[in-house]
Amino acid sequence: MDSLARLKRYMNDNAPLILDGGLATELAEQGTNLQGDPLWGSGLLHTNPQIIRDVHYRFLVSGADVISTATYQASVPGFMDHLNLSSERARELLMSGVHLAKEAVERFVSECHHTGRMHPLVAGSVGPYGAILLDGSEYTGAYAAKMSIEEFKDWHRPRMECLAAAGADLFAMETIPSIKEAQALIELLKEFPNSSAWLSFSCKDQMCISDGSPFSIAVQLANRSSQLVAVGVNCCSPLLVEPLLESGQSLRGLDMSWVVYPNSGEEWVREQGI
User: Fold this and answer.
1) Which of 3, 93, 168, 200 could make a disulfide contact with 124, Cβ separation 3.0–4.6 Å?
2) Cα(167)–Cα(45) distance, rounded to whole angstroms?
3) Which residue from 93, 79, 8 is spatially nearest to 38, judged by alpha carbons?
4) Quick one: pLDDT at residue 268?
5) What does the angle CA 17 – CA 256 – CA 105 come to, to the nearest 5 degrees?
6) Which residues, other chains included, contact 126 with Cβ-Cβ below 8 Å and sequence gap of 6+?
7) 118 vs 148: CA distance, rounded Å
8) CA distance to 68, 195, 200, 206, per residue, from 224 (Å)
9) Would you state the pLDDT for residue 134?
10) What integer pLDDT is reported at residue 41 of this predicted model?
11) In DSSP terms, which residues pair with 233 in a beta bridge?
12) Could you tell me what percentage of the chain is helix, strand and coil, using 3-state DSSP and rounding each to the nearest 5?
């Protein structure tokens, strides 16, 4: 059974699928200092891949059905600039994010897997363009006004190519702050016809995503893609989740699930980089 078939089978059972936790939070708990790091946790794919593999494994042991790769803030240009890698090596490093997650899944299945629990899936994390700007703009979407749909697609394409080639079970298009960037990702997803994804937005209040667009419009946009299995919100206060979902509930397609993973309520502080 392929990954999409397995995913839909479990989703059709109407049981919630448990995602992993915050990778950077867990890394910090292990003593890793990511403050001010332009690559955030993705740089550890190069400098300390074992700690990434171990964090994935701990999430699985804790009950995660889906783990996300350490590629949220990763990009081919970013790896080339900050790690002094060639384009080919940068692509290999991006792919290693999937390989490490899959190795953790294989270890978990062989050592701890219980009959009746779904075989865990690996989601290739696709963070917003704003994450590389290091100014918190993935929580405002202000940069979208200066970029076209095609420019967004050109920037996201190499990372999605690497994640798909490495065998990610689906894409996690997450913390997307603007309708324009979401539209670009949905269009780009068509270039990967054998792939599925979820689309999750950062939000500013109980009704709107970060660029000020109503969340209900974001839900309608997601409904246009047959490759999206879920739409929702992440990296926002838990207090915003219920009203946001209620605002889009009547517009959500019958085959579209919700995906929700808020933070604990803190806000990003630009001066501190956290």
Assistant:
1) 168
2) 17
3) 79
4) 46
5) 30
6) 71, 72, 156, 159, 160, 163, 171, 172, 173, 174, 185, 197
7) 40
8) 24, 16, 15, 23
9) 86
10) 87
11) 201, 260
12) 50, 15, 35
Residue 75: C-alpha distances to residues 26, 56, 70, 91, 248 (Å): 22, 20, 11, 8, 32
Q: Is 95 helix (H, G, I), strand (E, B) or coil?
A: helix
Tokens describing residue 238: 């838990």
Handedness of CA 25, 65, 69, 51 (dihedral sign): positive
3-class DSSP state of 121? strand
Which pTM value belongs to this model? 0.93
To the nearest 10 degrees (0 to 180), the angle between helices 179-189 and 215-223 is 10
pLDDT attached to residue 3: 63
CA–CA separation, 97 vs 44, rounded Å?
A: 10
Contact at 8 Å (CB) between 20 and 67?
yes
Mean pLDDT by groups of 10 residues along the chain of 274 residues:
65 82 86 81 94 96 96 96 96 98 96 78 97 90 97 98 98 98 98 97 97 98 96 96 97 94 66 46
Q: Could you tell me the two tokens for 39?
A: 């690559």
Q: Which two tokens stand for residue 159?
A: 């990372």
Q: Write 9-17 long-range contacts (CB < 8 A, 24+).
A: 10/65, 10/118, 11/229, 11/257, 17/65, 17/66, 17/118
Decide: 128 and 176 in contact? Cβ < 8 Å: yes
CA distance 104 to 124: 14
Residue 29's pLDDT is 84
